[in-house]
Structure to design on (1352 residues):
């Protein structure tokens, strides 16, 4: 190539032009790109390498820092008396066995070991030679060959071998041995070695046991890890390999490499962000208990948390936070969405407090009135299904009857005997089938009766407005429910004046007509006292804003006096389930006295009279409210109602609303009521079986983002980074009209969802719930579908929340009832007035008794104005009119919570001997344990001051095992109970009464607690009277069911 | 002007070839033409100087004393090719490191993406679907394009221009290429990439791709404008219009083929089959811009409607 290039025109550019500069440049660039490629391969695509190195450093540093700290703690444990004693014990033991050990070790090391070593080789050599010839014998084809080989073996066996065997202490012996001698010596040595080892093991065993005890002692008294455990972790870090750490669950083809960076997640030590130099990725899992239930080796990470488990190239990729990954990592505040994926039908989960709130809002605020969601509010659907099933069975029945008749006739006309018999048999079979259908229909009828009882609405029935309230209130309420009652469940609809008027007019005009009996005015002061002590505050609150006192489960009654009629309130308080007219599910209308009169029947409908006079089908005889019947007398109801009508906001005024009676507004109102889905939460005339107006939300979380209509906000959302499911839900919940922004729409085309004025945490909770509502791709066995008692617990929570049991009772450990938080119950005298805690309820009571109690908490059909068990409580356990199915579920729920076997078989108790009975009586009335001082006896004079249940109930109500445990340590089960603890003390494997024992006990060797239990379970009214020292004229006639 | 939107389209890894194409194709066209024109000047010089033509040794460079008559492939050609290989390798390396494969989420049969676009090299075909009925745009025209490309050497009666760039000697071929490839094919690819947004609606570059955008675009068929309603009438009317178009294009093209002496000389070298084949492909090719104008400017969907096909 020509060397010099110059821009001289007449030089041939093809041959003279040098490309070397260009070549150099491009070659350098190529090299550079090669270097880049290598760097990218090693570091660029593997950012986790440096992350892992950092983790290793920080974790080691953390462990090094923690080690002396833990060592100091450990040292203090080691210095304790008990530890030293144990240690000394070990030393003594060791000293004791030392000579024997020495002897054994000496023999093993000096004689047996070397001798075995010396003999093994010659013996193995000789043996293998013989074995080789033996094989040839086995495969030899001729007898003569076999014989000659056999001779060879004999020769080999007889051949002597020279060997030197040590005899201990440095001496040895020279021997000549043939094969059988070798074998014998070898076996003898082996056997001796094993013998010695066994003896040694037996000697050492107590020492190693003591050592294990010592270790356990330290571990039990150490918060965190011991020094040695930390040392182990530090060692692990020393051997730490920088590589991808992955969980591979073969059965579901799941590969999660999250732990490539999140290395501390499963470490047995708690790592906080501060511990790890401010790096949040290195912390340990915040809820270790969850990892124990969901073993990461089986569940991986992404099934709960989402994200791209396989990606390792960047944090963004691994977390799935990019456009095309459909399952991005849940935000921290929504992390519990992952739980819902598999726990779809659980209403309450441990460790998922946010999700629980979200589900409860969805259930309790009436979201489900418009949005179908599988598993929520299923009664209406089940009712329709069972109705359809009945219809089908009716048709089948008719068909079978007809066929039976025809077959019978054909048999009569049959030509021969055999044929006739066959046909008769067939006809019989058909008739049997008919009877079977009858059984099925009966069950379905029972089921639908149950379902009619279970069916509840979130809002009050609007059929009753005419008897219930003043009409001027309705339009005011519709305009802004939150202005009237800030915490109300009723959401604000975006209605204009005209729409409000039309809706109010329809509601007013469609209300049932009826006359309520006029009630005498009551005593408001007494009413207030009753309102505050009967338990109303478990659900209702009075007072606005921060001054609200009571529960938020039901309406805040601060301004109830402004709207409701006194007469109606009295009826409502006396029995909230009472309807003005029953609703026929078949005719789909409210039945009035005229319908009953036609059949000559009295206008009576209640839970015992539930059939329609016109067609015999089931009636809805109750208000569909969860508010229970508190079994108050009319006077008490009047008092409370009198108090409630005084609850008014001073100066509130309502403009006249004459238009409510304008019939022209009615059809328009109906259209609007239907359009806005009012019937989702309220019972409204003509709209009893209205469908839901909203989208189904069961799988909303996995709906493609393109199907979520951000409308004109799409671009803002994309640029502002909330074009995600979370962003959509949160904004929609905050402002349900947000996606109408900027849209030009006709009034009725606008988004209908009303504003619930959810608080920020509530928005997060509902968003979490919706994010978790996905069409899961996980295989079926990942879902939480227990068939055992856990299913009972799951079912039970739906009822516990539905009826707000937790307003008054403590159901789970750590939960506080509303009542227990009220100022009144902080007073020690009033603490005893709190409803009983239900923790351990399943272990405490007989399930059959509980079922009876739940059905009728008064435990009486006549004397109902009282508590059946704790008559001393001012708070009233109300009658909820549960369906049988609900009672079954609740009873099973409590049984399951306490892991009680089902069905319950009462334990047989040994009958008391006369002497024992005498002893028990003595104890019962002794000064040290005056049981009857607090426990009710049925004597009204005494019971006024009693603060514990009557013993007569024990036999039917309680389980003996629980009763014994309760007597021994009641404070453990119910902290703060007035039942004294420490009545018994442990003495030689039995419980003995702690106080002075009556003289009759002399030499009694059995368990005292057990004696009392047996006495209680054989307690009779006569015995009670006897103890109370009264004659048979006692009024303690308890109508037991 | 929504720069973010423009950047989103231009920076999509899928669209990198097209962005490059917008720059590279004009550059190389210009570069090739420049060389052609230089060669043309040389040809003109040699034609006036027959002596020089005899001694002249290189086709593309003027003669200089002392220059070698022929140069060897090695090293003079191969070193350039080697250099080119290095540069291309470098570009590919950088490209493959810097841009990942544009993978998206798993396909969802119940949810079609919007806009849903073909790979960049097929975008022209997809764009054609706007102007013709699917059978024409999807089957007939692509086949004709392939067959037409294969037929070019057999229809080409011009013996000049082998082995060197020239404009003067291959005016027709160059114009046909520029029109067919640069204007028709590439412009449709660019339209498909940059202009067609959600709903395959026309968005000017820099206009926000708004999924909510509604455009009133009622297309009609040509017979409708003339109030022809019967199917037979439409068929006959459309046939006549199509025939008319064919005749006009054929005559116009014939005029081009016999424009000047050079053209006429080539024309005389053509056989009848060559001539008719060329006419057929030119008429077919010209139908695309005609349909585009009719559709985009006059909202005309079809011209000729028959029970079997629509044009």
């Amino acid at each position: 190539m020509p060397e010099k290039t110059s821009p001289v025109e007449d030089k041939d550019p093809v041959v003279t032009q040098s490309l070397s500069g260009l070549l150099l440049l491009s070659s350098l660039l190529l090299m550079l790109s090669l270097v880049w490629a290598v760097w990218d391969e090693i570091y660029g695509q593997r950012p986790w390498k440096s992350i892992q190195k950092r983790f290793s450093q920080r974790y080691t540093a953390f462990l090094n820092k923690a080690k002396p700290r833990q060592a100091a703690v450990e040292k203090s444990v080691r210095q304790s008396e008990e530890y030293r004693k144990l240690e000394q014990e070990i030393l003594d033991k060791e000293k004791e066995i030392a000579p024997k050990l020495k002897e054994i070790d000496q023999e093993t090391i000096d004689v047996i070991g070397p001798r075995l070593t010396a003999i093994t080789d010659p013996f193995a050599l000789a043996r293998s030679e013989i074995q080789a010839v033996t094989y040839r014998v086995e495969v030899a084809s001729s007898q003569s060959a076999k014989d000659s080989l056999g001779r060879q073996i004999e020769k080999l066996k007889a051949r002597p071998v020279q060997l030197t065997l040590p005899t201990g202490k440095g001496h040895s012996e020279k021997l000549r041995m043939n094969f059988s001698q070798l074998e014998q010596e070898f076996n003898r040595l082996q056997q001796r070695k094993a013998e010695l080892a066994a003896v040694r093991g037996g000697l050492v065993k107590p020492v190693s046991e003591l050592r294990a005890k010592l270790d356990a002692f330290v571990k039990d008294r150490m918060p965190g890890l011991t020094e040695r455990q930390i040392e182990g972790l530090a060692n692990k870090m020393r051997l730490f390999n920088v590589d991808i750490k992955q969980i591979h669950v073969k059965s579901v083809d799941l590969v999660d490499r999250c732990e490539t960076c999140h290395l501390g997640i499963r470490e047995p030590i708690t790592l906080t962000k501060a511990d790890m130099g401010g790096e949040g990725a290195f912390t340990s899992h915040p809820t270790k208990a969850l990892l124990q239930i969901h073993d990461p080796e089986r569940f991986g990470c992404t099934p709960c948390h989402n994200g791209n488990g396989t990606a390792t190239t960047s944090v963004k990729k691994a977390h799935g936070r990019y456009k095309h990954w459909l399952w991005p990592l849940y935000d921290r505040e929504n992390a519990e969405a992952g739980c819902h994926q598999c726990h779809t039908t659980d209403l309450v989960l441990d460790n998922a407090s946010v999700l629980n709130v979200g589900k409860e809002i969805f259930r309790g605020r009436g979201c489900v009135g418009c949005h179908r969601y599988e598993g929520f509010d299923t009664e209406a659907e089940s009712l329709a299904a069972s109705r359809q099933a009945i219809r089908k069975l009716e048709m089948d029945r008719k068909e079978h009857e007809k066929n039976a008749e025809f077959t019978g006739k054909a048999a009569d006309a049959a030509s021969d005997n055999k044929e006739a018999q066959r046909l008769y048999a067939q006809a019989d079979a058909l008739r049997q089938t008919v009877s079977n259908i009858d059984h099925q229909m009966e069950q379905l009828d029972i089921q639908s009766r149950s379902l009619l009882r279970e069916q509840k609405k979130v809002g009050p029935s609007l059929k009753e407005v005419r008897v219930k309230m003043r009409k001027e209130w309705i339009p005011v309420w519709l305009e802004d429910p939150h202005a009237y009652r800030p915490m109300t469940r009723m959401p604000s609809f975006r209605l204009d004046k005209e729409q409000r008027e039309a809706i109010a007019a329809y509601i007013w005009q469609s209300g049932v007509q009826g006359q309520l009996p006029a009630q005498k005015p009551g005593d408001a002061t007494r009413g207030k006292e009753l309102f505050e002590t009967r338990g109303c505050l478990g659900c209702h609150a009075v007072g606005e804003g921060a001054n609200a006192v009571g529960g938020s489960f039901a309406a805040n009654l601060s301004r109830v006096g402004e709207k409701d009629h006194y007469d109606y309130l009295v009826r409502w308080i006396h029995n909230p389930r009472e309807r003005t007219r029953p609703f026929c599910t078949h005719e789909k209308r409210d039945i009035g006295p005229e319908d009953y009169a036609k059949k000559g029947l009295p206008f009576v409908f209640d839970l015992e009279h539930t059939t329609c006079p016109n067609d015999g089908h089931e009636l809805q005889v109750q208000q569909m409210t969860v508010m229970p019947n508190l079994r108050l007398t009319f006077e008490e109801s009047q008092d409370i109602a009198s108090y409630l009508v005084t609850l008014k906001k001073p100066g509130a005024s309502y403009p006249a609303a004459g238009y409510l009676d304008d019939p022209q507004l009615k059809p328009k109102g109906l259209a609007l009521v239907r359009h806005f889905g009012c019937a989702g939460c309220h019972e409204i005339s003509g709209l009893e079986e209205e469908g839901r107006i909203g989208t189904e939300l069961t799988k909303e979380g996995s709906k493609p983002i393109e199907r979520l209509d951000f409308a004109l906000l799409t671009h803002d959302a994309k640029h502002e980074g909330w074009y995600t499911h979370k962003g959509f839900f949160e904004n929609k919940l905050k402002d349900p009209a947000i996606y109408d922004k900027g849209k030009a729409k006709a009034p009725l085309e606008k988004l209908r969802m009303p504003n619930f004025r959810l608080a920020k945490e509530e928005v997060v909770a509902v968003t979490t719930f919706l994010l978790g509502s996905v069409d899961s791709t996980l295989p079926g066995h990942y879902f939480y579908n227990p068939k055992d008692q856990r299913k009972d617990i799951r079912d039970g929570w739906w009822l516990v929340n539905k009826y707000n049991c937790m307003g008054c009772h403590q159901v789970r450990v750590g939960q506080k009832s509303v009542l227990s938080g009220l100022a009144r119950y902080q007073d020690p005298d009033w603490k005893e007035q709190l409803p009983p805690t239900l923790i351990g309820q399943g272990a405490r009571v007989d399930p059959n008794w509980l079922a009876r109690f739940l059905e009728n908490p008064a435990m009486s059909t006549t004397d109902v104005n009282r508590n059946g068990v704790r008559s001393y409580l001012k708070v009233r356990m109300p009658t909820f009119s549960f369906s049988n199915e609900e009672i079954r579920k609740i009873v099973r729920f409590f049984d399951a919570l306490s892991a009680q076997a089902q069905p319950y078989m009462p334990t047989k108790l040994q009958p008391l001997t006369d002497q024992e009975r005498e002893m028990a009586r003595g104890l019962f009335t002794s000064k040290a344990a005056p049981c009857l001082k607090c426990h009710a006896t049925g004597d009204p004079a005494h019971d006024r001051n009693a603060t514990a249940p009557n013993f007569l109930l024990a036999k039917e109500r309680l389980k003996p095992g629980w009763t014994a445990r309760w007597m021994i340590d009641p404070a453990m089960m119910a902290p703060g109970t007035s039942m004294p603890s420490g009545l018994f003390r442990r003495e030689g494997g039995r419980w003995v009464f702690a106080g002075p024992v009556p003289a009759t006990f002399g030499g009694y060797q059995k368990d005292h607690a057990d004696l009392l239990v047996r006495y209680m379970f054989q307690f009779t009214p006569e015995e009670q009277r006897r103890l109370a020292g009264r004659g048979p004229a006692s009024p303690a006639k308890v109508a037991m069911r | 002007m929504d720069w973010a939107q423009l950047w989103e389209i231009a920076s999509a890894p899928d669209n990198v070839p097209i962005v490059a194409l917008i720059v590279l194709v004009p550059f190389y066209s210009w570069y090739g033409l420049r060389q052609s024109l230089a060669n043309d000047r040389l040809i003109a010089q040699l034609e006036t100087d027959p002596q020089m033509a005899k001694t002249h040794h290189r086709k593309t460079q003027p003669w200089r004393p002392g220059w070698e008559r022929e140069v060897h492939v090695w090293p003079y050609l191969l070193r350039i090719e080697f250099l080119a290989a290095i540069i291309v390798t470098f570009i590919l390396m950088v490209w493959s490191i810097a841009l990942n494969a544009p993978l998206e989420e798993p396909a969802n049969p119940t949810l079609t993406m919007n806009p849903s676009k073909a790979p960049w090299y097929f975008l022209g075909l997809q764009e054609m679907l706007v102007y013709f009925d699917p059978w024409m745009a999807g089957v007939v025209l692509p086949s004709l394009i392939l067959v037409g490309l294969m037929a070019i050497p057999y229809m080409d009666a011009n013996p000049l221009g082998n082995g060197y760039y020239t404009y003067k000697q291959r005016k027709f071929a160059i114009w046909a290429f520029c029109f067919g490839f640069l204007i028709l094919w590439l412009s449709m690819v660019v339209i498909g990439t940059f202009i067609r947004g959600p709903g395959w609606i026309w968005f000017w570059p820099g206009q926000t791709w708004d999924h909510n955008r509604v455009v009133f675009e009622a297309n009609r068929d040509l017979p409708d404008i003339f109030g022809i309603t019967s199917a037979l009438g439409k068929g006959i009317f459309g046939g006549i219009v199509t025939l008319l178009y064919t005749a006009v294009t054929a005559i116009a093209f014939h005029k081009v083929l016999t424009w000047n002496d050079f053209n006429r000389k080539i024309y005389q070298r053509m056989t009848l089959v060559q001539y008719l084949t060329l006419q057929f492909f030119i008429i077919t090719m010209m139908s695309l811009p005609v349909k585009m104008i009719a559709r985009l400017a006059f909202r005309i969907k079809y011209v000729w409607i028959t029970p079997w096909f629509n044009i």
In short: The interface with chain A takes residues 4, 61, 64-68, 71, 75-76, 79-80, 82-83, 86-87, 89-90, 93-94, 97, 103-106, 108, 111, 113-114, 208, 210-212 of chain B (CB under 8 Å). The radius of gyration of chain B is 25 Å. DSSP finds twelve helices and no strands in chain B.
